[in-house]
Amino acid sequence: MRSEQIDARPEWLEEILRRRPVISPSLLACDFTRLGEEIRALEEAGARVLHIDVMDGHFVPNLSMGVPIVEAIRRLTNLILDVHLMVDNPELFLEPFRKAGADALTVHIEVAPDPRPLLESIRRLGAAAGLSLNPPTPIESVLPFLSFCDLILVMSVMPGFGGQAFQPSALEKLRLLRENRPPGVVLSIDGGIKAANVSLCTAAGADLLVIGTGFFTDEAGTYGERLHRLHRRALELAPARGA
Ligand code: DX5
Ligand code: ZN
Question: Which atom of ligand 1 is least distant from the CA of 215?
Fold first, then answer.
């Protein structure tokens, strides 16, 4: 349960649920030599949420972006910054990333089997509290904590790298989450999503689709055209609004 004003639910969560399905470009696949221009182009294209992958070289065998990058992105844009913490000690980083401008902070159940204190801290900081699970992690591990979450991020690849193949086992997890989620929880999916499989994700219940390679590399045309095309594909099998 939220404790009154300090952690009022961020308004943009309702907007995502109203506008679902929403495509969220994952910056891991963008051109980092032109990060500022990329952000501007995404903004002009009509993107609403940017996915930012944080890796520590321990929880995942790779490194990526950190607090200074989120700070720099925040100075450039008012877009929603959805920060995915693929790190072993998320408690150390919640406040720094929130101060840097993160709107959502997602932690992994694999590093916090009881994630309630983390999720509560995130809400107290005024951000949306996200919980993620890897492909081998059973859905039962997150079900007891849904009421502490604003967002659930189902991984459809092992985290650490972009450009991997989509693991369809994520779809069954989404279906179960759709049946069990308290009202207002955003269901998100991340990894290997492209035009060819995006509608399977929405059909299974995803509201927010994180797309890296499938947006920046595989699609052609302006970013506006890519967003539009992926959104149209995402709607093909999407359940009717309110379903
Ligand atoms: C994977 C990251 C993803 C990644 C997705 O560890 O969490 O956000 O950027 O990239 P694609 O869409 O290329 O699988
Ligand atoms: Zn991610």
Answer: 12
End-to-end CA distance of the chain: 25
The 10s digit of each residue's pLDDT in 73-116 is 999 999 999 999 999 999 999 999 999 999 999 999 999 999 99
Q: Look up tokens 């099998």; give the residue.
A: 237
Instruction: Determine the residue of 31, 50, 53, 83 to mutate for testing ligand 1's pocket, defined as the one with the most ligand atoms within 8 A of the Cβ atom.
Output: 53
Query: DSSP state, 235?
Result: H
CA-to-CA separations, 26 to 39, 119, 133, 155, 214, in angstroms, rounded:
11, 22, 17, 13, 9
E strands, the chain, are 22-25, 49-55, 80-86, 104-108, 128-133, 151-155, 186-190, 208-211
